[in-house]
Amino acid sequence: MPAGTECTGTCSFPGGTVPGRRMVADPHQQSTEITQLHGEATAPSLPQHPTIVPALTVVYHPVLRRIGDRVILGELVAGREAQISRVAPRFSPPRQPRSAPLDHVRISREPFVLRPCPDRSVVLDPGDCRTRIAIDGEPVDQPRRITADQLQRGAILELSDRVALLLHLFTPHAERDTGDLGLVGHSDHIGRVRDDIRRVADLDVPVLIRGETGTGKELVATAIHESGRRARGPLVCVNMAALPTALAAAELFGAARGAYTGAHGQDGYFRRAGGGTLFLDEIGAAPAEVQVMLLRALETSEIYPLGVQRSERVDVRIIAATDARLEALIASGAFGAPLLHRLAGYEIHLPPLRERRDDIARLLLHFLGLDLAESGDTELLDRTEPAPWLPLALARRIMQHSWPGNVRQLRNVVRQLVIGSRGEIEASLSPALLHQLADGASAPAPAVEAHVPSGRPHPRAVERHTHRRPADITEDELVDAVHAPLGHQVHRRGARHLAHVAVQADGDQRGGPHGWPPRRRRDP
Q1: Which of 185, 228, 294, 356 could cross-link to 189 by cystine, CB 3.0-4.6 Å?
Q2: Distance CA 317, CA 235 (A)
Q3: Burial class (CB in 10 A: 0-12, 13-18, 19+), 192
Q4: pTM summary value
């Protein structure tokens, strides 16, 4: 699509289409996250079929507490371009009324634009914007196409090496304002998990939580228990992979005194969870003999403690969790299909962290807050001068990592980061952490394509050279260069004066204010 062309009517994105007249988002964010189109008032209800729309999430800002702020780009869905500058649009924390623009001196007031295309891609056009822009680390000085695959994964836009935004897809949905349920994040993925928790919490049906290791299955089980009518009862957690087969019956159902050699009498997990919830973690690793015992207890709600002749009825809700592919285990005979059917009264699937990239920065900020509070250094999150405690380069590395260990791995990395950076002027990764993140890094998809419009060359299109003339270096770049080697001891005004003098000196040497024509040096 030519750079000067604008879509009209509607623009289709994966998952649905929004009419060009209006776009409605999360009702709890109407003041900041709903884009009104053509000056019409926004309807108070959501579309019957949620639509996937582009959004921008702040993944780095010198004011660190702005990480996670978001704006929904409803104009792209309506076929119109979105303008991004220092003063617009206004970003807001999800489900909060306050909002603010990016508001950084290095971001130009002249906007760059995001333009929708019929093939569900988006073209980023720098236009006359003086902001230095990079997409997934690649500098952009002319219109570039961000493909639908890149949008699905999320593209990182870096602005003047100061602010980073994640351009991604988001599904607005009507999430009831009943709290975060102990889960950090505001991606549509985690929103659906919260919806699932609310739907099933007040029921007594068994729940099976499925997801990769480290995605937070125990947190979800806790949220279900605490949100249901059994919240006043106990929540008993047992790791089935660590349950010895020989002692499984006694551990699960209890044993009478003298039931076996050394038995002093015990209640067992089912008895202890009476009136509450029993959480069976790693259920896929349960031995076959234990599976048979569990199936009997689930079918009849009765248990047989060792050494007791009569059955005992128990009032327990079962929640199980696994990161195993149970269907494959059933095919191999390692897991019983009847037990799966009993456990899966309702299934909740947790997404891996790599599929909810807009939550990575929010989780990073949350964990930093926890660990800095523990070390007594909370004020570091609010420091902006001489520089933010968390540098952009570190945030970029964290955003680009694939996180095979999911939230648990991120939690561990942040803890080590905070401890290893105590007493330092800014946060940094140890060599071991650098190696860990390098091993699991995921290379950005080659989804950024050159988009050369027809007609005259774009004003920002320039030929790339290996070496640049001094006259081509901007004043802002000189200021950055002065700040870098001297740390933060050079005053900003003095640095700008030094840059101005350098530009003037270069112009004098080359023959004029613009360096043309050059002056010839005469030999003595």
Answers
A1: 356
A2: 10
A3: middle
A4: 0.78
- With H, G, I as helix, E, B as strand and everything else as coil, classify residue 462: coil
Rounded CA-CA distance 275/315 in Å is 5
Contacts of 340 by beta carbon, 8 Å cutoff, 6+ apart: 208, 326, 330
Give the other-Cβ count within 10 Å of 498's Cβ: 15
Provide the greatest CA pair distance for the chain: 116
Nearest C-alpha neighbor of 311 from the set 384, 373, 253:
253
Angle at the Cα of 243 from the Cα atoms of 239 and 245, rounded to 5 degrees: 150
How far is the C-alpha of 149 from the C-alpha of 136, rounded, in Å? 13
Q: Which two tokens stand for residue 117?
A: 């295309």
CA 387 – CA 161 distance, rounded (Å): 13
Please give the Cα distance from 358 to 208 (Å, whole number): 26
* Contact yes or no for 420/375 (Cβ under 8 A): no
d(CA 28, CA 176): 9
User: Strand, helix or coil at 141?
Assistant: coil
- State how far the Cα of 121 lies from the Cα of 210, in Å rounded to an integer: 32
Place of tokens 């929540």: 235
Q: What is the DSSP letter of 111?
A: P
In sequence order, what are the beta bridge partners of 124?
114, 144
Whether 461 and 144 have beta carbons less than 8 Å apart is answered as no
Q: Report residue 495 CA to chain centroid gap.
A: 37
Q: Look at the block and give the residue holding tokens 């006259």.
A: 471
Helices (H) and strands (E) in the chain, counts: 16, 20
Q: What is the pLDDT along the chain (524 residues), one digit of tens a residue?
A: 444 444 444 565 654 443 333 333 333 333 334 333 333 333 334 334 457 899 999 999 999 999 999 999 999 999 999 999 999 999 999 888 899 999 999 999 999 999 999 999 999 999 999 999 999 999 999 999 999 999 999 999 999 999 999 999 998 776 555 678 999 999 999 999 999 999 999 999 999 999 999 999 999 999 999 999 999 999 999 999 988 887 888 889 887 765 555 556 578 899 999 999 999 999 999 989 889 989 989 999 998 877 667 788 999 999 999 999 999 999 999 999 999 999 999 999 999 999 999 999 999 999 999 999 999 999 999 999 889 999 999 999 999 999 999 999 999 999 999 999 999 999 999 999 998 888 656 544 444 444 444 334 444 444 434 445 555 565 555 555 555 544 444 344 444 444 444 444 444 444 444 333 334 444 44
Query: Looking at this protein, which amino acid is placed at residue 27?
Result: P
| Distance between start and end Cα atoms, the chain | 60
